[in-house]
Specification:
heterodimer, A: about 375 residues, alpha+beta, Rossmann fold, OB fold (Dihydrolipoamide Acetyltransferase, E2P), 6-stranded mixed beta sheet, 6-stranded antiparallel beta sheet, 8 helices, 22 strands, elongated, B: about 575 residues, mainly alpha, MetI-like fold, two-stranded parallel ribbon, 23 helices, about 0% strand, globular, ABC-type quaternary amine transporter (chain A), membrane (chain A), nucleotide-binding (chain A)
């Protein structure tokens, strides 16, 4: 039965008045998988979470948790009857109950001894056994977050939802708590869905990253592919910096304003206009001190410490950005030659969508 | 028609399906409960309206014109009185510093604890022809001094003195919460303090003052006890006398509808005063209105003004009551606290306990249902449940009787002779029902204020941990809103003890409460007997004033802290 997905979305839609917060969402999450939902605010990621938890009822489509239909055209399971755990940004611990009582809250119905044993077990898991008798306000933010996780894990939910769980913690604490929380979730093999607006967080903790915009899933893929092979123009620009240059593929050669970028195998017979996605770390610049006439030149240089971000204006007026090691600093006005770092196969867009095969051919 | 050149715009979003319009969340059981509460609250008013719509035109009382004019005059008089007293005092304590100002700020709220029907008889005993003031005048000036103060102006004075705190509280809050930058802007644009007040602060406080005035008007419309001491025949008095005098349902209902009309006019007037302008102000930092230190002489004058208002509305009447009580106890008349009073007292306590418990339970149900989610109609129903407080007592009274009448007729149709038999005799059930209708609003507000402080995520966490709505209410919500519950219990209980008109209208023959007890003794000029029970009511009524004051002070502190943070 372990092959039953922990969570399935089938054509799920939800709108608030005229706003479509979820449009025809399809997604399947395997048991033990960690998925991050990311997108700009209002993209529908929180709505997706609320739909899973049963805090919203979908207008159309079905949601299955551990193989059981919890929302569908003729069925709606209330949140308290779903095997879904919730962890919030504000921790949402019950302020009038001790840590143990908080954790035991979801174990209602078990015999007292079992309840105590399970609560002790999950508190040990988050290494907070020694604080069991405290009240939430006597804990630090990080400790509160771990209690919230322990409380959500206690009833052994089929999936745990974490709504921007780290954004209330200050910067230096965040990385540590994040590592601890992710560690516990991995250790227990828990299926988890994180909502976040932090790209680095999404890429670093997810087995899969789901990028949403305007209520739609733009791409659901491994972190590597989301970053290296974005499916759409939006994903390319949202998940990291990207510049877009008009380009042309002719006889498997990709050319644009800065010259030949790369070869495109399999596009031998193609002759099409595309846009090429260039990330700053893929762009190389070489100074051309003695150059006559117009050409690319540095228009801005931002020192970021370990790296220096150069912005270069091309002859057409378009700009591209390039990361350089901290020792390389070309002052504004330096004439440069722009190329693409060797070995890079940049993403090509036709319209707003990435293409891997020449348009018009069956792939 | 020329062909459009622009390409057709592709639809941004697919048409919403019919299904998307159904309420997406909420629990049917809880939502239906709220709807039932709303129906119960609206019941009396609806009964009056339905009855008027179906009834034939009755013979209006001959003095209808007089009653309408008297009501209008009373409302106008009390309106002006409370406006001057309330706004003036609010301005004094906000804009100036003078000796004892910080004490006066909240002492000036105390008259809220003095029911008008108590101040009324004290006022009459002191100032009427047989009272000490006129006796002294006669001895000083001669026997020709003899006039009655049981008149419309007398009534206006008494009601203004007891009701001005509504305007005072709201005006003061409005002055204190003005975005400081607005006032600063007016000053930098060359307006002096006075000009900045009259041209900027006062207009900005208009909606608050209007809300305070609306509360005052509702109290004036509800009252038909105080006015009777003064022989002021308002429409509300008309409802009461027509019903109690002749049990003429048709006329009483028609008059009650007229009272309702006045209430609607008041609410509409308040809306009108608010106008289309926006008065909410964006934060903004600055010094704002800084109180001016008055010179010693003017400071003492300001203090005197506050003391006079306080003395007239609270201190003197309380002292007079104490004097009567002591005097009576020393004499050899019947004891003030006899078995009749004990009975009335225990009746009051029972009614207060039942009413406050019922109101709090209903308020919890409403708050919980809203928290569990639900569509627009749930919110509308919840809004309706608070509306009983704005319905004049005469309307609730007659409406409740009408509902009993329907019930009787329904029972008779079912073959129960005489039905409940409650209609003419009145009943305690009717009083309880009318009280709940009237007080579930304030209870809701108190409980709701606590609910606002419980994060929604707490509810959602509790649900996702497998707790059903009832368990969430019992284990999470109830413990967390207990302070609001406590406030609601106290407020409603004391309001129920103070309340007079509804009891007068609905009580069974011989059934007394403390308020009725005081009212009747005072009506027969048995002031010595009435004094002690009246003091009991005033003492109880001080409690909610203190609760109110604590809330005001907390809000003030919060405002001050915001400002001091802002100025850093």
């Amino acid at each position: 039965m372990s092959s039953t997905p922990a969570l399935v979305f089938e054509g799920v839609s939800k709108s608030y008045g005229a706003t479509q917060a979820a449009r025809d969402l399809d997604l399947s999450v395997l048991p033990g998988e960690m998925v991050t939902l990311i997108g700009p605010s209002g993209c529908g990621k929180s709505t997706a979470l609320r739909l899973i938890a049963g805090l919203e009822r979908p207008d159309a489509g079905r949601i299955l948790v551990a193989g059981e239909e919890v929302a569908g055209p003729r069925r709606f399971v209330n949140p308290e009857k779903r095997r879904v755990g919730l962890v919030f940004q504000d921790h949402a611990l019950f302020p009038h109950l001790t840590v143990t009582r908080n954790v035991q809250f979801g174990l209602h119905g078990l015999p007292r001894a079992e309840r105590a044993a399970r609560a002790a077990e999950v508190l040990e898991l988050v290494r907070l056994g020694h604080l069991a008798g405290r009240y939430p306000h006597e804990l630090s933010g990080g400790e509160q977050q771990r209690v919230a996780l322990a409380r959500a894990l206690a009833p052994r939910p089929a999936v745990v939802l974490l709504d921007e769980p780290f954004s209330s913690l200050d910067e230096n604490l965040r990385a540590q708590v994040r590592a601890e929380v992710v560690g516990v979730l991995r250790e227990t093999g828990t299926t988890a869905i994180f909502v976040t607006h932090d790209q680095t967080e999404a890429l670093s903790i997810g087995d899969r990253v789901v990028v949403m915009q305007g209520g739609r899933i733009e791409q659901a893929d491994t972190p590597y592919r989301v970053f290296e092979q974005p499916a759409t123009r939006f994903v390319a620009s949202f998940m990291g910096d990207a510049d877009f240059l008009r380009a042309h593929v002719h006889k498997a050669l990709l050319t644009c304003e800065i010259g030949v970028v790369s070869t495109v195998p399999g596009w031998a017979s193609a002759d099409v206009d595309v846009d090429v996605v260039l990330r700053p770390h893929e762009v190389a610049i070489t100074p051309e001190p003695g150059r006559n006439g117009d050409g690319p030149e540095v228009v801005d240089m931002e020192y970021h410490g370990a790296f220096v971000l150069h912005t270069v204006r091309l002859a057409s007026g378009q700009t591209v950005r390039s990361w350089q090691p901290h020792s390389v600093r070309h002052p504004v006005g330096t004439p440069v030659r722009v190329s693409v770092v060797a070995g890079v196969t940049p993403t090509l867009l036709v319209g707003d969508h990435a293409v891997t095969a020449p348009p018009g051919t069956a792939s | 028609m020329t062909q459009s050149v622009a390409p057709p715009v592709p639809p941004v979003a697919p048409e919403p399906t019919a299904r998307s319009r159904r309420p997406s969340r909420g629990r049917p059981g809880w939502s239906v409960s709220v709807l039932l509460i709303a129906l119960a609250v609206v019941g009396p008013v609806a009964a009056v309206l339905v009855d008027v719509a179906n009834g034939e035109l009755p013979d209006w009382p001959r003095n209808l014109g007089d009653m309408v004019v008297t009501t209008l005059l009373l409302m106008a008089g009390v309106g002006i009185g409370t406006l001057v007293l309330g706004c003036g005092l609010a301005w004094l304590v906000t804009a100036c510093t003078f000796p004892l100002r910080n004490v006066m700020v909240w002492l000036l709220v105390l008259p809220l604890a003095m029911p008008a029907y108590i101040l009324g008889f004290v006022f009459l005993s002191i100032f009427d022809a047989a009272g000490p003031v006129q006796q002294w005048l006669r001895s000083a000036l001669g026997d020709f001094v003899e006039f009655s103060v049981a008149t419309l102006p007398g009534c206006v004075i008494v009601m203004s003195l007891t009701l001005y705190p509504y305007v005072y509280l709201l005006a003061r809050a409005a002055f204190a919460e003005q975005a400081p930058s607005t006032y600063d802007a007016a000053r930098t644009l060359g307006a002096g303090r006075g000009r900045a007040f009259f041209r900027v602060l006062l207009p900005l406080a208009r909606p608050s003052i209007a809300a305070g005035l609306a509360l005052v008007m509702m109290e004036v419309l509800t009252d038909f006890a105080t006015v009777q001491y003064f022989g002021v025949q308002t429409v509300s008095v008309g409802v009461y006398t027509v019903w109690k005098g002749s049990y003429d349902f048709g006329s009483a209902v028609q008059l009650a509808a007229l009272v309702m009309l006045f209430a609607v006019a008041v609410l509409a007037g308040e809306r009108l005063m608010r106008g289309r302008a926006r008065f909410t102000q964006q934060g903004g930092h600055g010094r704002g209105l800084q109180p001016v230190r008055l010179s010693v002489g003017r400071g003492l004058l300001a203090l005197l003004a506050c003391l006079l208002a306080l003395a007239g509305s609270f201190v003197v009447p309380v002292l007079q009551l104490v004097w009567w009580a002591v005097d009576h106890a020393r004499g050899d008349g019947p004891p003030a606290l006899d078995s009749g009073f004990a009975q009335a007292f225990s009746n009051s306590i029972s009614i207060a306990v039942i009413t406050s418990l019922t109101c709090v339970v209903l308020a919890l149900v409403i708050g919980h249902a809203i928290r569990l989610g639900g569509g627009r109609w749930l919110r509308a129903a919840a809004q309706l449940t608070t509306f009983g407080y704005a319905v004049p007592g005469a309307v609730i009274g007659i409406g409740t009787l009408l509902l009993f009448d329907y019930l009787d007729r329904a029972l008779e149709a079912l073959g129960v002779p005489g039905g409940t038999g409650l209609l003419v005799t009145g009943s305690v059930v009717g009083i309880l029902y009318a009280f709940v209708v009237r007080f579930v609003g304030p209870a809701s507000q108190a409980v709701d204020a606590s609910y606002q402080k419980v994060p929604v995520t707490l509810t959602q966490s509790a649900l996702s941990l497998g707790a059903g709505p009832l368990r969430v209410l019992g284990r999470v919500h109830a413990p967390l809103v207990r302070s609001g519950v406590a406030v609601a219990l106290v407020l409603v209980a004391i309001d129920a003890i103070k309340e007079l008109p509804v009891v007068l209208m609905l009580r069974p023959f011989g059934f007394n409460t403390v308020s009725v007890w005081v009212y009747q003794l005072a009506k027969e000029n048995l002031w010595g007997l009435a004094a002690l029970p009246a003091l009991v009511i005033v003492a109880l009524a001080v409690v909610p004033v203190f609760i109110l004051f604590r809330q005001v002070r907390t809000a003030d502190t919060a405002t001050r802290q915001r400002r001091s943070r802002g100025s850093l």
